[in-house]
# Entry
Amino acid sequence: MSYRRKSPSLFARLPYWLLAILLLFVLCLWAIITNDTYASIFRTLSAGVVTTLWVTLLAFAAATVVGLLVALARTSGNRVLREISTFYVEIIRGIPILVFLFYIAFVAAPALVAAFNFVLAPFIDWGWIAPATVRGFDFVWRAIFALTICYSAFISEIFRAGIEAVDRGQIEAARSLGLSRWHCFRLIIFPQALRTILPPLGNDFVSMVKDSALVSALGVQDITQLGKLSSSSSFLFFETYNVVAFLYLTMTISLSLLVRWLENAMDRRTGR
# Structure
């Protein structure tokens, strides 16, 4: 007599750490729904979620493009490009993000405004355009600019590692068949490198969501800044920062699970 082994249920297959996080999420959500204090704080801080996501998405998209260009420069055969891109990466990675944020906001931004006015001075004198002012350079855009530059250096290393992980023989074979450098990159290198770079790229995106809290130092009305203002006026530090942590954890854990799902989907598609 044969017995058919039952497959474990979906609940049994869930990892314990995820079950613990789900339980914590339910408890926090229950407190927000049933407690007037938590509900009021949540309504106040939820306005900062849009700013946090806007800064993160825009900065990460720009950093990905810049990082890819820097990685291509670092893997090119031109020594000048390699030296310049390596200098860029080493300098940016050696400066703390908060310090670089202040540098961009209070040093580079005024310099860019001055350069803009200098280049377009004839048009300003003729009255065709108004001169730019430092106050007109919004701190949100300064923060996006700073995060873009900082993360582009880290993302370029991810792209470089993925590109160099592709077997050199495949590239030489593609070139011998007459493929151009662009077609070789698009059809041979990038599809294979994508499987390698997706997990660390996703981790960098999650890290940027957390590091976006640093923009509160510039007064940008994100989750952290609104939490600071709310707690300083109400003195409800425990409740306020519980909600702040809840919002960040909801975003980062959801994104981490999404990255894992994409990685598993790619593995199934390629038969790995």
